[in-house]
Amino acid sequence: MDLASNYEIDRTAQFILNGHFTRVALQFPDELLRDSTRVVRALRDELDDIEIGLFVMADTTFGSCCVDEVGASHVGADCVVHYGHTCLSQTSTLPAFFVFGKAAISVSDCVKSLADCLSTSEEPVLVLYGLEYSHAINHVKEAMEKELSSLRQSKSDLVLYFVDVMCTVMNPSTVDDHPESSGCTGANGTSSNCKRTGSSLDGNKYCIGGLTWDLPDGCKMEDCLIFWIGTENPAFTNILLTYNGSEIVRFDPKENSLAKDFLHHKRVLKRRYYLVEKAKDANIIGILVGTLGVAGYLHMIKQMKDLIAKAGKKSYTLVMGRPNPAKLANFPECNVFIYVSCAQTALLDSKEFLAPVITPFEATLAFSRGSQWTGAYMLEFRNLVASSQEDDSDTEEARFSFLQGGYVEDHDNESKEKPVEDGERSISLVEATQRALQLQDSNPHYIVKGTARSGAEFFNKRSYHGLEMHSEKSVPQPFVIGRTGKASGYQNEKENREIL
């Protein structure tokens, strides 16, 4: 496949010219960087305008599937062209044009596998796909029309649905307080105002991972067999967890094979439930900012802060790029972390971390009084609409923790007998934090001695602070192995010359 077709040079140039953009950021994932110089050269030839600046962006601060608006702002870009795999998360400040790429696929093999599923399934079949295979879906539809005519001779009740791509052009969200709004535009210029969700909205309309579709009245996702075209990637994991009540099969275009067994992902779902139960016992929670570009992330951070405060717990907000065990180990006072990120980077395997990392949806289950997990799952944080203020009446259920073996109460019984004023609530938060840190002081895994009332005091009481300065004018003495001095004459070489 030639470069101009795969990278959609003509359509990209048309987008730039129609928008009158003068500084364009071209965002490439690591695996496509090798083509960046050729793409710039081809775009330059197509634009034929030396006044338009083209800037290549590579290493992203967070996930490469999201539009890197922070990196684009460093070069003063007024739009972003995003190449490769994307989650199509709503942008907040810049318009974006998406080039999904054209991954290789055998249409005939795909149609054969799809026809086999249709002939054996008693349920309607819903075809979902990775965005990199969207270029071939029309060919799959045309080939399936011929197959359906022959299949219906032996089975007349066949039902087949294909989903559509939400958009290829995205305008920034104008109202952050209402993150469900979006400004998507398709290749034909039509707008698509669809909430990102994994559940039904506006009747039977569904959207997830850049795909959108409608189901007829009376038909639910649980009633459909999902036929996924693509590799086993974060987008597929999002589908598996969100629609865990549906039967799912996957056609792998690279292997030309059909996979039906996804026990690993079912184990992942069980582990997420375990982490929810573990989070209920937490007293100090760290909120990890996993995106600075997805519209609504500030709204979600505030919602998490309010949720944690109402649960009588303490929270810290941390911005550190991509989390790893070493980074989070600097905050041992946090019992659990909430990762506010796009749906396709939200799941972190935190087995190697000192504290578990959960999603905003899991945090809502853990810290909301009376909430129970029904089996439904949600990775897209923008679907979590702020719940109404919780009633503090005695009729509310306490949160049951299987790990603690009982009900977890957020406040003392005395606080339930009378209304809690703002000042008293602040005092209760301080006391809860102090009790939590005292518990950690007695834990042999922590070196801290004494009582700390905040994260800063907790840090000051550590026995190790890194490279400590012994005095204002002194520096730590390194443990020297090998030679010292300059390469032109090491210290031992000078001493040898003097001896000679």
Structure description:
InterPro entries: DPH1/DPH2, DPH1/DPH2_1, DPH1/DPH2_3. It comes from Stephania cephalantha. The chain has 500 residues and is α/β, with parallel strands linked by helices. The protein folds into 4 domains: 3-99, 3-Layer(aba) Sandwich (Rossmann fold), CATH 3.40.50.11840; 107-261, Rossmann fold (3-Layer(aba) Sandwich), CATH 3.40.50; 268-386 and 398-407, Diphthamide synthesis DPH1/DPH2 domain 3 (Rossmann fold), CATH 3.40.50.11860; 411-465, no CATH class. 31% of the residues lie in helices and 19% in strands. It has helices at residues 3-6, 9-18, 36-47, 69-74, 107-120, 137-151, 234-242, 263-279, 297-310, 325-328, 360-367, 413-417, 422-441, 455-460, 491-499, and strands at 23-27, 53-57, 79-83, 96-99, 125-129, 160-162, 164-165, 169-171, 183-185, 191-192, 197-201, 205-208, 211-214, 225-229, 247-252, 257-259, 284-289, 314-319, 336-340, 357-358, 399-401, 406-408, 485-486, 489-490. The strands form 6 sheets. The protein has a 7-stranded mixed β-sheet. Strands 6-5-14-15-16 form a 5-stranded mixed β-sheet, with helices on one face. Helix 9 links the parallel strand 17 (284-289) and strand 18. The protein is globular. The N and C termini lie far apart (71 Å).
